[in-house]
Amino acid sequence: MNNRLSGETIDMRFTPTELSKQELELQREVRGFLLEELPPGSHEPCLGMAARKNKEFSLKMADRGWVGMALPTEWGGSDRTAVDRFIVVEEMLRWGAPVGHHWVADRQTGNVILKFGTEEQRERFLPAICRGELGFSIGMSEPDSGSDLASVSTKAEATTGGWIINGTKIWTSGAHENDWFVCLLRTSPLEDGNKHAGLSQFLIDLKSPGLEISPIPFLDGSHHFNEVTFNEVFVPETNVVGDLGMGWHQNTTEMAYERGGPDRWLSPFSTVEQLLREARGTDLEPVVSDLFGELIARWWGIRNLSLSVARLIDTGEAPSVESSLVKEMGTRFEQEVIEKLVHLIDLEYSPDSDSLFERLLAQCVVTFPGNTIRGGTIEILRSVASKGLKGLPA
Ligand SMILES: Cc1cc2nc3c(=O)[nH]c(=O)nc-3n(C[C@H](O)[C@H](O)[C@H](O)COP(=O)(O)OP(=O)(O)OC[C@H]3O[C@@H](n4cnc5c(N)ncnc54)[C@H](O)[C@@H]3O)c2cc1C
């Protein structure tokens, strides 16, 4: 791509790619596993990464080597590639599998600990993550810091043997059910003109004394996220992840893993698939088939961009520009899909309907507005991409 303002040439690294023979074999294996474990009609599909937590299911996936699969065998992983993980995740989400328990640990926390953690942290957390045992949350947002994440003010102050934490994190998905979270905290005061300095990442036990977790009910009344308050919470020195003051850089790397995967474009798939099933033999069938054709073509395009992000990760890159663009396009597409379904069926859908499609649609309508917000809003993703393309820091 040519930057017309500066004349400088900037590469966008979306390279066309196909799955290899071995990768297609893995895809078949995952499909077989799902058919056996969750035969069609045996479970209510989950909507993408907002999947139910089912530790038993996570343990079964882990038994197959599909949790933390891209982590080295030395730490309990399977030394597989980001593309292999893409294949497993794509199949799980397409099927609406209950992957919530290991989701965050598998997608990002394991990578963060591998990349920036100490040997002791790797030994303590990575094998347990790969066994599907540990559930992690993300401790980034605060009441006054969402998009402007570098302005976080929850403070960690040095004390004997560790740190004392005071402040509040918000929108912490699953904090009430998970075991740990990785928090971005301020370890030295805000410097004039450089808010990215003085931030550090910490591993924090969600059961720590002084840590209070309060539910924030979702629009439909369900309990998904929380406010987490720290009142003089002690965290040992050994739980600092990476170098002090490097939290911003580490956090940006973490978000490259977080943004470009199938979870950012596949969430409505099982709802569309269910509509196809229920429309079969009715007046709606031709119009639903047309819509399905249109959606699949667009899905395939975004899917290929997302797959090429996974290939880039396998070359050792942290493709923050490309993954931001995938999330921007993918989550906007997810909302468009739901708008189209709502217009198409033109009926009162209800969360208590006998029709599975209607129940799923009702959930999508209530929860999907969050998809373009969580993990970075549309505006912020565009800003990350445009700064990256100009060679500026995020
Ligand atoms: C379902 C869900 C789950 C979540 N889970 C977690 C979690 O587990 N952990 C966690 O830490 N956070 C989580 N979040 C929080 C999420 O990351 C933040 O909501 C998000 O980063 C936006 O921050 P904010 O809500 O403070 O909005 P704000 O930053 O106040 O933004 C409000 C509006 O202003 C726009 N805006 C802000 N700044 C700019 C700018 N510079 N240029 C242009 N427009 C701008 C935004 O795009 C947005 O439209 C979750 C959110 C949702 C919806």
List the helices and strands and how they pair.
Elements: H1 21-37, H2 55-63, H3 82-95, H4 103-116, H5 119-130, E1 136-139, E2 155-159, E3 162-169, E4 180-186, E5 199-205, E6 211-217, E7 223-236, E8 240-241, H6 247-259, H7 269-279, H8 285-314, H9 320-345, H10 356-367, H11 378-389
Parallel strand pairs: 1-4
Antiparallel strand pairs: 2-3, 3-7, 4-5, 5-8, 6-7
Write a brief caption for the model.
The chain is built from eleven helices and eight strands. With 394 residues, the chain is of the alpha+beta class.
Q: Explain this structure to me?
A:
This protein has 3 domains: 21-134, Acyl-CoA dehydrogenase/oxidase, N-terminal domain (Butyryl-Coa Dehydrogenase, subunit A, domain 1, Orthogonal Bundle), CATH 1.10.540.10; 138-246, Butyryl-CoA Dehydrogenase, subunit A, domain 2 (Beta Barrel); 260-389, Up-down Bundle (Butyryl-CoA Dehydrogenase, subunit A, domain 3). 43% of the residues lie in helices and 14% in strands. Helix 4 (103-116) packs antiparallel against helix 6, helix 6 packs across helix 9 and helix 7 (269-279) runs antiparallel to helix 10. With 394 residues, it is an alpha+beta fold. It is globular, with a radius of gyration of 21 Å. The strands form 2 sheets. A 4-stranded mixed β-sheet has the order 1-4-5-8, with helices on one face. A hairpin with a 5-residue loop joins strand 6 and strand 7 (223-236). The longest helix has 30 residues, at 285-314. Bound molecules: flavin-adenine dinucleotide.
